[in-house]
């Protein structure tokens, strides 16, 4: 008799629980769908204001425009090299704008090297939306600018910072530049996403698969990486280095992370490398 009385309550409890679980699943799926649709908003963090050279002690650089294959006109800052020294094409990370990269640009220019600070689409007041394909076109526009000025690939150094390492690797696999410098590089965005979000069931649209391209680079390679990097783990850079072909050099910084590599020792390592292989 007691069992018969409890059955309706038990059925009601099960139905209520299933309904709650159903709503939870709907919320989870909706959350994942939103993340998937907005993923580029989490990957690319541009400073959209146009940097002014005077605010970053860059008045000795020319403000130029890079013309992309899809008809965008992108802001860039440029200073030519001295005495036939190479020019460094600087491809920055996923946040900020070119003005924040002036400390390293200044060190390079003071050493006589040319510098082309490339501002991506959607960054620094530029039109367009950031994407892997778009960034590749932005990098290609920078190379075309230098080629049109009479530079050869052997007079160019590609410098890729963080996500910019994916752009530099892509370009270097296609063009025999003098040297490639990768700061805090990742093997791929897919692998990095899996590291940070192992629960997320989908791969990002943008791949930046440097691991697939690194052994196709026919240039001297320098990788710099902090062992305390929590954004792009040190093992990412090490894996790239192990697959890359000679000549190659990897410099690790024991007590450094992702955004605190820059100091005089760091700068000097870069200058020494370029002088050894390109100057």
UniProtKB/TrEMBL annotation:
- Positions of the Serine aminopeptidase S33 domain: 87-190
Q: TM segments? A: 21-38
| InterPro entries per the UniProt record, alphabetical | AB_hydrolase_fold, Hydrolase_4
Which key words are in the record?
Answer: Hydrolase, Membrane, Transmembrane, Transmembrane helix
Domain of life according to the entry: Bacteria
An example of a GO molecular function for this protein is:
hydrolase activity
A Pfam short name: Hydrolase_4
Q: This chain belongs to which protein, by name?
A: Alpha/beta superfamily hydrolase
Q: Which organism is it from?
A: Legionella israelensis
